[in-house]
Amino acid sequence: MTATVVEDSVAIGPRVSVSRGYRFELVKLVSQWRVRLLVLACWIAPALFVAGVGQQSTLPSDTLFGRWMHATGWAGPLVMLGFAGTWALPLLTSVVAGDVFACEDRLGTWRHLLVAVRSPRRIFVAKSLAGLTVILLLVAGLVVSSTVGGLLAVGNQPLVGLDGHLLAPGDTAVRVLLAWFAALAPTLALAAIGLLGSVALGRSPMGLLLPALVALAMQVAQMLPLPVAVRLALPGYAFISWNGLFTSPTQLGPLLIGVAVSLVWAVLATALAYLLFLRRDFTNPAYDGAGRRALTVGLLPLAALTAVTVAAVAVATPSLGSGIKQDKVQRSLATAFAHLYRLQTEQLHRPAVTEAQLRASAACTKSDGQDAQEGAGNDWRCVVTWHLPGVAVAGTAVYQLDIGSDGRFVADGDGPKEVNGYFLVRTSTGDAPNPLWQFDGNVELLDTTSKG
Amino acid sequence: MGLMDTLHAVRARGITKCFGEVVALDGVDLDVARGQIHGLVGPNGAGKTTLLGLLLGLAVPDGGRLEILGTPVERALAVPDGVAGFVDAPGLYPSLTARQNLAALAELRGLDAGSAGVDDALAQVGLTDVADDKTRGFSLGMRQRLGLAAALLTEPRLLVLDEPSNGLDPAGKRHVHRVLTRLAAGGTAVVLSSHRMDDLEALCAEVTILATGRVVFSGPPNKLAAENRELDYRLRTSDTAAARRLADTTTGIRLVDDTGAAGQDDQLIVVRGLVPALDELVANLVRGGVAVRELAPVVSPLEAAFLALTEQQEADK
User: Are the Cβ atoms of A28 and B57 closer than 8 angstroms?
Assistant: First the structure.
């Protein structure tokens, strides 16, 4: 009996190792012209875009950090990150992860692959790792290319953060890198959803489109007036919450929650794809997606995860409303104003002042005080007050605020002209952009960050 | 392990396989000796591809016993080393060249094929000239030959091929036949399915005919022909009128008015009869001074038997 067992184990054909399967999958992926084109585009196009925009008079000021693209090269990778989170990364993950399994259905090569590798588990691992490698290569291209393009075209100057304070180039570099790392988490979640769609839907184009559709749905959800707990429980929130890295103190709470949620989604969606893949009947030539099983094994657990995450975030954080409260808006605006006032003071060669001396404060109302004083909207009006040493009368300036439901706001100066009413200031070397005229800011939706 | 087991590359007893309500294989027995080319014939849906899939280890039978290269197969993807081939179509990646397809496969399986091994496999199937072309533009016949080359890389002891002659031109067919014959001479068992009866007759030592998942015949093709009914033969002679007269007077031979087989060729007649009666007709023609220029079955014996057996099976159903 023992002899038979040994003989059988020797007789059975060897399985292909994961490393060899990984190389095989990588060769197949990289041989596709569209993947090569994407790699080329991700490593070249951002540099050209950032350098090109840096030379133009009109800046993409509706994109976060876009208004600073003339001031520092470090704005380039952040503008690219904003664009990537909205468009590029969902589409890239769709093309790569959404097709990594479906391509075998399209080519009719599953049986060939199974006979060669002899282990669906190893095929799954090899394919997932190969897809992940290509996605990381594309993301690395976006980061490196936009950074190099920005630094070469504009230079290595300090960056103005979202609360108006200046970040030294070294500090900015670290934060830019961290922001892109944070954005990797939702990218992985989308990639895992792509794997799940690719396994569950077979050759159907829906499998390819799934990450892009999920990303679009998440973006639409983030635009809706949802409670903070729901907003943070969605896997795409880390595409937004990296903004908190550019404030002082850093808004780590939403960032860490967003990253953690994205990673849980990535793990669960990958596990579900794995289960669906192992249960697939490869002998059935009529297979065209997992059908009803895709609903029960694929969709329902993710819906349950969303519900559990919403509940967990709601319990862990006290914020159940929009998170955009009057006091937080006032504090955020006053802080940014004080930092930027110092910048303007430096531009105009006035006597230096500190934020403590300025004692800036803001009084904000929404809808002229008619409605509840919280929530997103472009009907916030604020009066900022500050003091100068040796001057008895406090200065005042008016701002209109357009606050998005994700907490990001644009403050639009409404006068007086010499402070914030005009887009240029006259310096000894000529006209320069007025930092107090229009600026971006961020209201932290959670109450977790210590008040700075 | 008995002597019979070591002599057989495939030994199947009472194999059944179902897909839901559909019975794909129903008590199939199959013996394929080492060094034998064995043909699988059957109408569409007879279970040929399912059986080939079992031999490749893509699935396990629901019932019965299957031994491959002397090893019982008890779970999917657990066939012994030395089994190669393809079902449905060869698995090729269109963005890779023919050489890259083979090299990637060789590396995947940890084969010491190197570029020499890949080149040798390509040469054997006659694809050296297109080795560096992407397979996206390959014809069906070229794809089949490249699939065979991929199988050759593993130096198989059991080669399983699903309709390898599909789309082959005469040169490609010659390459494939030569490769299969050489493999069999070296001790490799080859199981192939085909709808090309001439290929099966030329290559196979034995054939198995499947109909609706059951074996309706298994054995040498000549035994099938001998067991069969009368066949139609095309006969071309130097004197058609004399040939007609002699055919009319030969016992067991009937003239067939088959314009489809004879076409517009007025030197060609179609006769029907068993092989002994046909031998008598040839002797009569020779004695009558009529030269025989062509004598061939209108439909091959195997095809005729196949049609008869499968039609019978349908009628029984």
Answer: no
